[in-house]
Specification:
single chain, about 260 residues, alpha/beta
Length: about 260
């Protein structure tokens, strides 16, 4: 059994990456299908989708409300986990409709000639606040913080992928340490509440470094790497790879 998942979209003609949406499912589908009038498109949301803040049935209702619009436009929405997502929705593929689905870490999407590696997770710098909020609002089926939010370096999955596929595009929620945001100034205030924030954020970025180095050593032809998390826009070519940070609800087409 493979340690990774493959999802193929043979009928897609376009692939677009989107930054964080923070629960704005209806808005992002409207933007895709109506505002931009895209068709035959796979939209990949690079984390912080918003799964786990509402009861499970809410997300199925979102799909039911939008399924006709997605079908008529021949579009698909694929979601990678962020730190503001319940990891179980992705690991267990709790949302797995044909045109609206969560995917596990180390999934590979095949569309428009691309092999796209997707790896989620990051650190919630506001986790102290979120933990306290959850402790005051004890609920079994919803929350705002999940302890297993960090990205995981899965060497076995990367080795298995390397045996079968050549990855040309990577989509993660956070980014390698040499990409923006590099400044740690924004962590100072949060570190007064949670002194482990700086070291955990460093570990988060180191995990991305390991993934990057593994792909490089395995000679994968990676040319593009997309991520969200930081709520800003930034693009730069580093050692032959174009890294793109996407702002909230920002679309960028994979070419």
């Amino acid at each position: 059994m493979n340690s990774f998942h493959i999802y193929s979209f043979p009928n897609a003609k376009n692939v677009v990456v989107c930054g964080d949406i923070h629960g704005e499912f209806n808005a992002v589908i409207y933007k895709l299908c109506v505002q931009y009038q895209m068709t035959d498109t796979v939209l990949i949301i690079a984390g912080d989708c918003g799964f786990g803040f509402d009861k499970p049935g809410y997300y199925d209702n979102v799909y039911n409300r939008n399924s006709s619009r997605l079908s008529k436009s021949n579009n698909w929405v694929v979601m990678v986990r962020g730190n503001h997502d319940n990891p179980a929705y992705f690991q267990e593929e709790r949302i797995h409709h044909e045109r609206f689905r969560c995917i596990p870490d180390y999934s590979v999407l095949q569309a428009c000639g691309h092999n796209i590696l997707c790896v989620g997770g990051a650190v919630s710098i506001d986790r102290d606040y979120r933990k306290k909020y959850d402790s005051r609002h004890l609920r079994s089926d919803v929350a705002s913080y999940w302890a297993d939010e960090m990205p995981v370096y899965n060497e076995e999955a990367l080795n298995d992928i390397s045996k079968d596929l050549q990855i040309d595009t990577v989509i993660t929620h956070t980014a390698p340490s040499f990409c923006e945001l590099i400044s740690k100034d924004g962590l100072t205030e949060w570190a007064t509440l949670d002194p482990y924030i700086p070291s955990d954020c460093a570990k988060e970025r180191e995990t991305m470094d390991k993934i990057y180095n593994h792909l490089k050593l395995a000679r994968h032809p990676v040319s593009h790497w997309y991520y969200g998390h930081f709520h800003q826009t930034w693009n730069s070519e580093i050692d032959g790879v174009l890294f793109s940070m996407l702002d909230i609800m920002e679309f960028k087409e994979i070419r």
